[in-house]
Amino acid sequence: MKHILTSDQFSREELLEIFEEARKLQEAAELPQIMKGKILATVFLEPSTRTRLSFETAMLRLGGQVISIPNAENSSLNKGETVEDTGRMIDIFADIIAIRVPKRGQVEEFSRQVTKPVVNAGDGTGDHPTQILLDLYTIWKNRGTLDGLTMGLMGDCAHSRVLRGMARMSSVFEMNYVFISPVELRMEEDVKRLLAERGRGVRETISLAEVIGELDVLDVNRIRHEYFEDQERAQEIGKQFILTKEMVLKGRQQLIVLDPLPRINTVLPEIDELPQAKYFEAVENGVFVRMALMKRMLD
Ligand code: NCD
User: Fold this and answer.
1) Helix pair 279-298, 50-61: axis angle to 10 deg
2) What structural domains and CATH numbers belong to the chain?
3) Cβ neighbours, 10 Å, residue 68
4) Ligand 1 pocket, residue 286 CB under 6 Å
């Protein structure tokens, strides 16, 4: 497992091993300083708060160090240096590279330029495997299993790397899916094809109210307005997918609500105190999942 590029590169066994390792680290009385002498480079050419800080926290808490390009404006990319040349430089300095870029497929291209292991921390509308890992780990920790669960994926299924990635990664388990999105923002065919190949049930609807009672997990992501020409339309659609406390209470008692955040017309703060709300717990879990993953990549 050299590079982590996509959500469908993991087998079921690999996922369970990563989850076990993350849990071990999370339960340790003291964190092992296994990253001593190692340097993580975080290269974020698209906005980020959680993902970058989570990677950096994971590295620092395991005794390693961090160097960072926190935004494109601050680097020679702004002077016109290519991503390829930037990659060659970072390769000289770091032992492991977490990178976010604006275009789908661009992390993969980048990974071909470097010798050090690369983690995709988001490539446009493409994928975001560590976000999915931490959300799946959160479900696994709370439910003890992933098999047999029905998962709702709600919002901008067309552009959300998180919703796309979640369907792809989780489908090595025996899960069923309901995609909840406006008709023009439906899940792409490549994802549906993978789920069909893996024999997973899929339904599509525009109405959460219709399906809320059937869900074990509801993963929501905002309408990704950055991909819209018509910003007013993005706003208008966004408002149709706000998740209220009233709606959550109509669901099963064991429902798990996830949101990669930021919450822009997604989970209302009135949900935060409900036991169903697991999005902040997921942020905490994410540090340990990234520790487990980086350990595996450098082993
Ligand atoms: C997500 C992302 O960047 O894809 N955020 C994150 O990494 N926690 C979701 C989003 O921006 O909507």
Assistant:
1) 50
2) 31-127 (3.40.50.1370), 129-280 (3.40.50.1370)
3) 16
4) no
- What does the alpha-carbon distance between residue 222 and residue 203 come to, in Å, rounded to a whole number? 20
Segment 209-229, tens digit of pLDDT: 999 999 999 999 999 999 999
- Cα separation of 27 and 97, whole Å? 26
CA of 173 relative to ligand 1 center, distance in Å = 24
| C-alpha span between 298 and 2 (Å, rounded) | 8
Backbone angles phi, psi at 67, to 5 degrees: -120, 150
Any atom of ligand 1 within 6 Å of the Cβ of 161: yes
Mean predicted confidence (pLDDT) in 152-175? 98
Residue for token pair 């240096």: 81
* 105: its two tokens: 């497929």
Q: How far is the CA of 260 from the centre of ligand 1 (A)?
A: 6
pLDDT in tens, 249-296: 999 999 999 999 999 999 999 999 999 999 999 999 999 999 999 999
Q: What single-letter amino acid sits at 249?
A: L
Q: Is 165 helix (H, G, I), strand (E, B) or coil?
A: helix
Closest atom of ligand 1 to CA, residue 100: 3
Global pTM value: 0.96
Centroid of ligand 1 to alpha carbon of 99 (angstroms):
13
Query: The tokens of 13 are what?
Result: 């066994």
